[in-house]
Design goal:
29% helix; alpha/beta; Rossmann fold; CHAT domain-containing protein; three-stranded antiparallel beta sheet; single chain; nine-stranded mixed beta sheet; CHAT_dom
Length: 352
């Protein structure tokens, strides 16, 4: 919760008070997070990584106890963070306990989610009885400078190659526009896609808030707001939206400017994947390919995220930049249940 006389209170599940975080430690962490030095190398952020761990551990060793118990019982650990807006800039994905980064730990495996709302905390997982179905769309406006043009064809090919042996259907919508997205979603109907993957560029505009750059009907740049994207998604509500663009998981400096991903979950999407800062498109593509490969196998969502992070571990960026926002629903089950389904994967390119 927000700051009080004792510092920032940290609560466990069911609103049980665990400990407080000193204000000066929070200020130190915020300064380090804002300078951005940690995003490309673990070395400059060493203090930050350990600070973030102590914030959840406290003087009573809350997190250490949870991790030790999970390791001895051969369980995994799922951390669901609900943060006050002032702390949303902190990259808790970087937590390090002086032995290892928690999200890359083998024993126990640790999963971290940012909980936007608890509207689905009592929901039960309902895997689709079919092959995994993905809608892939890349947004590459004609006005982009050469250095910003994404190699989306390479990303698509990496994803298809990684999943071609498994039960998955991938449809590529080539327009890059809201109109094209709407047309494709309407064509599939309710529950048509398990995953919608949109690649492009995002920013946190100081005045307008989060924006994602899609294409107009003539291929020009179209700055799309979270509410505009939600208007196209809400009737068909995929289980997972991956906004693979820079800063889609970054909040602004002023309260009320939550990240694009945060707002989309608030509107109604169960799970949104995003990037907290700028991310290299090659590494992001490798991450996505590994993620969908694991999901196509029928691996539970949390496990798939873990293996995708591990796949890009050696490049550092982007594994700590990925931020997951949820509505409190289950994330420990597969997205699809393919038992009894035998046909192989297919890909379809849609060009308007």
């Amino acid at each position: 919760e927000d700051l009080n006389d004792k510092g920032y209170p940290v609560y466990l599940k069911d609103h049980i008070l665990s400990h407080h975080i000193h204000k000066k430690d929070i200020e130190n962490a915020l300064d380090q997070a804002k300078n951005g030095l940690w995003k490309d190398s673990p070395l400059p952020g060493t203090t930050l990584e350990k600070l973030l761990y102590t914030f959840l551990d406290g003087s009573n060793g809350t997190l250490s106890t949870i991790l030790s118990r999970a390791q001895s019982e051969k369980n995994e650990v799922k951390l669901c963070l609900t943060l006050p807006f002032s702390l949303t800039i902190l990259p808790f994905e970087l937590m390090h306990n002086e032995k290892q980064f928690l999200l890359l730990s083998d024993y126990p495996k640790v999963h971290l989610m940012h909980t936007v709302t608890d509207r689905n905390k009592y929901a039960k997982a309902q895997p689709s009885q079919r092959p995994l179905k993905i809608l892939f769309m890349a947004c590459c406006p004609l006005s982009l400078a050469d250095g910003k043009v994404l190699d989306f064809e390479k990303e698509e090919e990496l994803i298809f190659t990684a999943t071609e042996k498994y039960l998955v259907d991938i449809i590529t919508e080539d327009s890059g526009s809201l109109t094209g997205l709407d047309y494709r979603l309407c064509g599939e109907g309710q529950g048509g896609f398990d995953i919608v993957h949109i690649t492009g560029h995002g920013i946190m505009d100081p005045d307008k808030g989060p924006l994602f750059f899609m294409e107009s009907e003539t291929g020009e740049e179209a700055a799309v707001t979270p509410s505009e994207l939600w208007e196209k998604l809400k009737k068909f509500n995929p289980k997972l939206l991956f906004l693979s663009g820079c800063q889609t998981g970054k909040s602004g400096d002023v309260k009320g400017k939550e990240s694009f991903a945060y707002r989309i979950v608030k509107f109604g999407i169960p799970i949104v994947l995003s990037w907290g800062l700028s991310v290299g498109d090659k590494a992001a593509a490798l991450f996505a390919a590994k993620l969908y490969e694991e999901l196509a196998k029928g691996i539970p969502f949390e496990q798939a995220i873990y293996w995708a992070r591990k796949a890009v571990e050696q490049t550092y960026n982007p594994w700590p930049l990925l931020r997951i926002f949820t509505d409190g629903g289950p994330t420990d089950k597969p997205i699809t249940d393919k038992r009894g389904i035998t046909h192989r994967s297919k890909r379809k390119l849609i060009m308007e």
